[in-house]
Amino acid sequence: MPAFPKQWLWGLIALAVFVPLLQPVLPDVVSNYRLFLVSTMIIAAIAVLGLNLLTGFNGQISLGHGAFYAVGAYTAAVLMDKLNVPYWLTLPCAAAVCFMVGYLFGLPALKLEGHYLALATFSLALAVPQILKYKWLEKVTGGVQGIVLNKPEVPFGIPLTEDQWLYYYCLITMLALFWAANNLLNSRSGRAMMAIRDYHIAADTMGIDTALYKTVTFGISAAYTGIAGALSASAIAFVAPDSFNLFLSIKFLIGLVVGGVGSLAGSVVGGIFYVLVDNSAQALSLFVKNDLGLQFDLSAYTIFGILLILLMYLMPMGIVGGVYLAVRRLRQ
Amino acid sequence: MEQFLQQIASGLANGAIYACVALALVMIYVSTDHINFAQGEMAMFSTYLSWQLMTWGASYWVAFAAAVVLSFILGVIIERAILRPLHNAPVLSVVVVFIGLLAICNSMAGAIWSYLIKEFPSPFPKSSFGIAGVIGPHQLGVVLVTLIVLGLLFAFFRYTPLGLAMRAAAQNPSMARLVGVRVDWMLALGWGLAAAVGAVAGVMVAHIVYLDPNMMGGILLYAFAGALVGGIGNPGGAVLGGFIVGVLENMVAFAGNQIEKTTGIYIIGNGEKLTVALIIVITVLTVRPAGLFGRVVVKRV
Questions:
Q1: Does residue B281 belong to the interface with chain A, where contact is any CB pair within 8 Å?
Q2: Stated pTM of the model
Q3: How is chain B split into domains, by residue range?
Q4: Which CATH number among 1.10.490, 1.10.3470, 2.30.30, 3.90.220 corresponds to the domain A6-331?
């Protein structure tokens, strides 16, 4: 897939930077709630990017990235709650912890391929809430109740509201992480990652240390998703074990598949998409009940499930890939 | 000692459920090389169907049989409609479709029957059934019913021409096709049977874990563990593996309780059941992926 046109990219970034500043002028359009919603989309995009690095660019299937999200969120929460670490310092800490956890999980994953890896990570996703409730961790993690946190404070007396600052905090993190991912993928290491995905054995014979690359990619991927988790802990100002269930991992998978497996821009699309559907499910359900007259609660996961299956048939490359193919076909 | 026996007995009852779900997983895995992540949710859906029939007035066993038959039909339809086109698709696509199925089953059950936990009746008489102090009536009933189902399945695969054709289709599709077996339909039948066996497990376990859309999560995880311990390519092994992990699960919790009683240190208990299953899954996958009774498959590069 060709790179996204540079001018467009700068335009989008400029838009993302300046629109929130219009809040005093257009308080209805740029409401606090919408800013918060976009912040969660940004966080989702980072999490999906993490999964994409592993599954899309390295070919290792993970159905358990919610686990790394949870580790990131809890690392941040515990650091802020127990050790009074400033919130911005929790991001590198969460990244380091998640890198280690991901790297360690990547070691047994080396022996697993395809369905078996999916099975192992699926089991991980199912077990995460219970692991977080483990009695010995209760003193630190707060058990079932979880941990209540404070929202990030605006630093240096910058004249921004809390939600605006949260938005910029997420945006800056996302831009840095996407820039780093882009550079990684365009480097020798990135090409090695993709070579392993495309043909494992050929990559091996070309002299690529596949074991090292696969485990390190697992670590990096976990670190990305962990950073997203840490950001979400600050944003929601709360962590609790039962929010890190299997369905969180399924949401990341949705983001990955909708946006496009192996596409950086797709990770953003996917993140935006799943937050949007998740948030509008209630409205959709009401629409189905009142306007279509069906006595039926439409849940976000019904939509997710149907989309997952349809996309696999119609657009296996995701929406970004599908749009790109459509444009190319039209031009011909 | 009595407690110990009780734990083993209830472990066997749980194990019977795991064995059923593990067998359903293996039946699909053997014929298509797919791991059905939606198996648990499909069984949950079947259980709701039987519950619905019971609230409409059907007796337990009628509802049970109807749910099994309906699940069989649903399984065949799912295979024909959703999985058939993906026969040669990459692993990721197949996994994603299974996860999609899981999400659909779970949310549809929640939408139709709500997420409230429901009680599910037990058909086994409380007074005259079971062995006092060792095994409760429902647990004994579960073991018996699953043993009957497993026996019937064994007889079907071993002694009927259709069973033979299904085994042939699973083992060597192209050769089976050459001798006139309709391989496509055999796969669909396999799916239907797997869904039906899953339904048996779901209806049997619902009295123990109560009926709610997320009831099968932990059971599916243990079924995975059971299938892997026994060997995911080996039906008999998977059944045995299901029983093994069922007993193991209770033994671990029992040992944890004993340790806590004697030394006062909490290590492991009922709250860590899924973690134990996760450890079993990962250990088996990394140490001996073929399981205890599976054959090691040599892959040609």
A1: yes
A2: 0.89
A3: 2-119+130-213
A4: 1.10.3470
